[in-house]
Amino acid sequence: MSEDIINQVTQGEYKYGFTTDIDTEVFPMGLNEEIIRLISVKKNEPEWLLDFRIKSYRHWLTMKMPTWAHLEIPPIDFQKISYFAAPRKKSPKSMDEVDPEILKTFDKLGIPLEEQKALSGMAVDAVMDSISVKTTFKENLAELGIIFCSFSEAVQHHPDLVQKYLGSVVPYSDNFFATLNSAVFSDGSFVYIPKGVRCPMELSTYFRINASNTGQFERTLIVADEDSYVSYLEGCTAPMRDENQLHAAIVEIVALKNAEVKYSTVQNWYPGDKEGKGGIYNFVTKRGICKGENSKISWTQVETGSAITWKYPSCILQGDNSSAEFYSVAVTNHFQQADTGTKMIHLGKNTRSHILSKGISAGFGQNSYRGLVRVSKNADNARNFSQCDSLLLGDKCGAHTFPYMDVNNDTAIVEHEATTSKISEDQIFYCNQRGISTEDAVGLIVNGYAREVINKLPMEFAVEAQKLLQITLEGSVG
Amino acid sequence: MLEIKDLHASINGKEILKGVNLTIRAGEIHAIMGPNGAGKSTLAWVLSGNPAVEVTHGEIIFNGKNLLEMSPEDRSREGIFLSFQYPVEIPGVSMVNFMRTAVNEQRKYKNLEPLSAADFLRLMREKKELVEMDNKLTSRSVNEGFSGGEKKRNEIFQMAMLEPKLAILDETDSGLDIDALRIVANGVNKLKRPDNATLVITHYQRLLDYIIPDFVHVFYDGRIVKTGDKNLALELEEKGYDWIKKEVETPVEQ
Question: Can you say whether the dihedral through the CA atoms of A180, A183, A187, A188 is positive or negative?
């Protein structure tokens, strides 16, 4: 029976695998200083930014790809990738006009870019390949002093803010992929919430890879000034292709005194086919700093896509009484691999962090949780609670947990709990006996298992994430 | 309603059922009694389609349809309900969500629209009262952290929600104190209608004080070896299963 069900459940189809036929400008493959200068020129960047890129690139040349993750990564030829691809504008005179093909693409993805059609209460920055194609509700938000625009635009219009915070959370020399990103990053979103402002809408960025043989290196920077609040969502998809594509992004979050930032991701990059061919290599560095007192950052992620995921959204708890949360559901099916988790670095006094990680493995999927909780010498009364659960569907997949703790203060309380479970045939039969099909039973059980995390997502996303979990695991129980 | 003909079935290659014949008509209550290991629960599993049991021979007709060809979920949708001897815990899945999925699947099968949230909650409330079920329980995950008695009561609650044509109660009385037993039995009796039937599997006569059977069958070594009315249960209680063993085995030795 298990065999049958595993086969059934692992047959889910990727719904976003289409490509858009648009005129795209693509840089020649390869990486060198010339290419970096070209990107910088293309984006009309100031001198200091080019310097930042070049400094990063030179540092990157001295680095080696990390091998510590529990991942089998085929060699990546960084000279066989194009580092810039942008849909060409048809009529340069109308800046706000978006190519109808692009509009159609985002419509198809369920992200309408016309404001009248948009989901109420959500502003979207749509990024295709290396550039932002449209940001909605920009003007409405500007009335409150909120800056929400593409990263490139921020460099032009708010260079002081960008210069002040760029690389302040993830330094250019941080790690192999972050350093690569710092050299070649293309576009992404920039958010600034001014003092005392509670952002009235969900801000969201939707990343779409379209061009082939290109990498996507987006950069997102969110700054929440004192006493402000923002909830930010990120979604991503890519066409189905036989070749692997590289995605190496950086997200930096700064929360000042009493500020709160909620960052939610539903990551659904193309995972590759059932034989493990193709798919996105997702190497992402996400980090936030609770800089001020009482500040709060919360990461919520639902990771269902990508052939390989290497991602540890982290928090530095610098301000006294600051708190951080990490809620994660990561699914690996077929031949997908994920090594994901978080780092909570407690520096301030009375800082609290909470980690809840739910891994789901099916097919031949390998799923690892890797987390670090560090309490520094001066972080009196720091508290951490970590819970890592793994759910196995079938007997050919794997779940691994690598928790690290580094506690240097006697007053700290650090707790860790972990469980591993399987969906049992008894559970399936029990559901069947009440008239629920095996497929629906798996969906019910998986969503039940992931519920605590899904509940942290904004409503529209929660519904989407639930469906996504079910589709991703269609056909996988034992 | 149900006709079982010469049913043989095995688990892991070991034959457990060795030729069961049984006919149940609408409106009837049948009780199956017998010692441990006689195959009573196996019969319940065959009827509900548990894939752990392999049917090697025989036929089961349920309301004119070949039951053995149906998936477990379709059997449920056709009106077969099993009250599990050991109800399964499903962490994270709320009773409300579980029941709503089940009820709406059953409705879909009958080409009915799903129940609105309001109608569904009304139905829940009504049925909860029937089995005197605590509100707390339905807001929790399916069977998770329930006591033995609560689990059994939850089974009867689900039965009330799904209104089956044939309800099979597999040792529903085991692990129940006398009050819970009365509540469960009351629930079963209130759900009794001329167009449905009940098959009660039990060890003890005790439950049959509350649920009065029309027929009592004694199960031994994979077969029904004796059938009578409710008095047979009393006789069995008095004389013990050894009496049956002797009666069954003696003729063979002669």
Answer: positive
Count residue pairs from A and B with Cβ separation < 8 A.
Answer: 80
Q: Per the structure block, which two tokens stand in for A425? A: 């045939």
- Letter for the amino acid at B34? G
How many whole angstroms separate alpha carbon A269 and alpha carbon A244? 11
Question: Which residues fall within 8 angstroms of residue B144, CB to CB, at 6 or more apart?
Answer: B89, B90, B91
Domain boundaries, chain B: 2-87+164-249
- Contact list in A for residue B50 (CB cut-off 8 A) is 429
Tell me the average pLDDT across A409-416: 96
Q: Tokens 């793994």 sit at which residue?
A: A390
The pairs formed by B184-192 with CB atoms below 8 angstroms and a separation of 24 or more are: B184/B131, B184/B152, B184/B153, B184/B156, B185/B210, B185/B211, B186/B210, B187/B130, B187/B131, B187/B153, B187/B156, B187/B157, B187/B159, B187/B160, B188/B156, B188/B159, B190/B130, B191/B130, B191/B159, B191/B160, B191/B163, B191/B167, B192/B29
- Within 10 A of A397 (CB to CB), how many other CB atoms are there? 26
- Per-residue pLDDT of B104-151, as tens digits, reads 999 999 999 999 989 999 999 999 988 888 888 888 999 999 988 889
- CB-CB under 8 Å, B77 with A435: yes
Summarize pLDDT for A175-234 with one digit per residue, the tens. Answer: 999 999 999 998 889 999 999 999 998 898 888 777 777 888 999 999 999 999 999 988
- Asked if A270 and A278 count as a contact pair (C-beta separation under 8 A), the reply is yes
Instruction: Name the residue among B49, B50, B162 with its Cβ closest to that of A434.
Output: B162
- B157-169 pLDDT, tens digit per residue, is 999 999 999 999 9
Is A51 in a helix, a strand, or coil? Answer: helix
- C-alpha A121/C-alpha A458 separation (Å) is 11
Full DSSP string of A196-248:
T-B-SSEEEEEEE--STTB-B--EEEEEE-TT-EEEEEEEEE----SSEEEE-
Rounded distance between C-alpha atoms, residue A86 and residue A212, angstroms = 12
The rounded distance, in Å, linking the Cα atoms of A218 and A126 is 12
DSSP string of A378-444, one letter each residue = T-TT-EEEEEEEEEE-SSS-EEEEEEEEEE--TT-EEEEEEEEEE--HHHHHHHHHTT--HHHHHHH
* pTM for this prediction: 0.82
Measured distance CA(A224)–CA(A229) in Å, rounded: 7
The CATH topology of domain B2-87+164-249 is Rossmann fold (3.40.50)
Question: Using CA atoms, how far apart are residues B11 and B171, in angstroms rounded to an integer?
Answer: 20
Nearest CA of chain A to the CA of B50: how many Å?
Answer: 7
Nearest CA in chain B to A429: B50
Judge whether A394 and A363 are in contact, CB under 8 Å: yes
Amino acid present at A356: L
Which tokens sit at B4?
Answer: 């079982």
